[in-house]
Design a protein that fits this description.
six-stranded mixed sheet
Length: 422
């Protein structure tokens, strides 16, 4: 029997519910969703009743203390993990994940006092210690919750991974915040969970940075119930690397799925052939941070000139070897070939960027380093785009009409008006 040879395939098994052994969501976590067929014990029913009295609906129980890791988006003025989570992470164990919603300001003294009082009630009611809770906090309730569970294999052992995203957004506006919760039954130690979470935060979501279209991340936690039978992954060796690659692929598949559910498109920027890791990340982030690129992709187009501009902005001087391609399930088109700007058909570019799996690949031909980043773009229908274009045409015609009227106005009338204004 193999120790931990990781298969490269995975398969979605459930949507809108948590299907990982060892984790039980509170009944209101997903309205109308089942709880993976797991019946609550008497103690868990008492816990749920206590939490309902405390006014908390989004709570996840860990049937046994789970290995835990967390990371934040690095912005102290936006939703983050609660201060109590730092203690839980130091202990590497958690018995529950709790979301505090509806707070005025996550880091105000008033909010801190309210959370501390609520935490004391939780500790007393649930018999859960301060160092056994992973707790999220934000300044408003989540408008959407998306979950998808996957099955994969480590060696000859079947494992599961569930990805949960909670986000808030007003209708017609960008997403205000995103919180991620990753759950697995694979045996992975807490330090390796933290290492994996940090790796995911760098590639593909660059969590610590903001994109031109808004923040991609605010906080995330990764919990393992260790219920699977695989050999424990406790060191950054070859088995860890294989598992990490598969988890990254699963997570990216979830991001594509979540983007569809939230009415967005996820465009992946993949840079390869860089001479250093810093150069690879610099080029990828130059695309996602540039407002002009965001607006171009939002309109389902991308000028080849922006590719060379972003590469140059990241400090890459040798543009002769730069090749850039746009691809998706709708097809593929080359924007830049070995430093030469091309003019692909606009219809082809629009079709590619309209797909849900659009990807911009940039090859630098300078080394062996690579990096990926993602950009969230609002998904607007062709009818909405047409309406915006029509509104723009009408506004343009009105401006032209005003200009023609001014041209017909006599010079002395214009002089008189100017004198009155003076």
């Amino acid at each position: 029997m193999r120790k931990n040879g990781v298969n490269r395939t995975f398969e979605p098994v459930a949507e809108g519910e948590i299907c990982v052994d060892g984790f039980v969501p509170c009944s209101n976590f997903f309205q109308g969703a089942s709880r993976s067929g797991n019946a609550f014990s008497a103690a868990e029913r008492r816990e749920e009743a206590a939490l309902s009295l405390l006014g908390l609906s989004d709570v996840l129980f860990c049937r046994s203390p789970a290995a835990a890791a967390f990371i934040t988006g690095g912005n102290a003025f936006f939703p983050c993990l609660h201060e109590a989570s730092k203690t839980a992470a130091l202990k590497d164990r958690a018995k529950a994940a709790i979301f505090f919603d509806g707070r005025e300001s996550p880091f105000s003294s008033r909010e801190k006092a309210a959370c501390e009082k609520l935490l004391k009630d939780i500790f007393f009611s649930l018999r859960i210690g301060r160092n056994e809770i992973i707790s999220f906090t934000c300044d408003g309730a989540a408008s959407q919750k998306v979950a998808r569970s996957y099955t994969f294999r480590i060696g000859d052992y079947s494992c599961r991974l569930c990805c949960v995203m909670r986000c808030a957004a007003k209708e017609g506006s960008a997403v205000k915040y995103r919180q991620f919760l990753l759950l697995t039954d694979a045996k992975i130690s807490a330090p390796m969970l933290q290492r994996m979470l940090k790796s995911l935060s760098s590639d593909p979501l660059h969590f610590a940075d903001e994109t031109a279209g808004g923040r991609a991340f605010d906080a995330a936690a990764f919990l393992s119930s260790a219920r699977a039978e695989n050999y424990l992954i406790s060191a950054p060796d070859g088995e860890y690397a294989k598992t990490m690659r598969l988890i990254r692929s699963i997570f990216y598949d979830f991001l594509l799925y979540a983007a569809k559910q939230t009415g967005e498109r996820l465009v992946k920027i993949r840079v390869s052939g860089a001479k250093s890791a810093q150069e690879a990340s610099g080029v990828a982030l130059a695309f996602v941070r540039r407002r002009a690129v965001y607006e171009e992709i939002k309109k389902r187009r991308l000028s080849p000139l922006f590719v060379l501009e972003c590469v140059g902005a990241a400090g890459e001087r040798n543009r002769a070897g730069v090749t850039a391609e746009l691809s998706s399930s709708a097809g593929k088109v080359c924007l830049v070939f070995e430093g030469t700007l091309l003019s692909p058909p606009e219809e082809t570019t629009e079709a590619i960027l309209s797909a849900d799996d659009a990807e911009l690949s940039v090859e630098l031909l300078s080394g062996n380093y690579s990096y990926s980043a993602c950009m969230y773009v609002p998904c607007e229908s062709a009818e909405e785009d047409g309406a915006k274009l029509r509104r723009g045409d009408i506004a343009r015609e009105e401006c032209e009409a005003v200009s023609r009227e001014k041209e017909k106005t006599p010079d002395n009338a214009g002089t008189t008006i100017t004198q009155k204004q003076t």
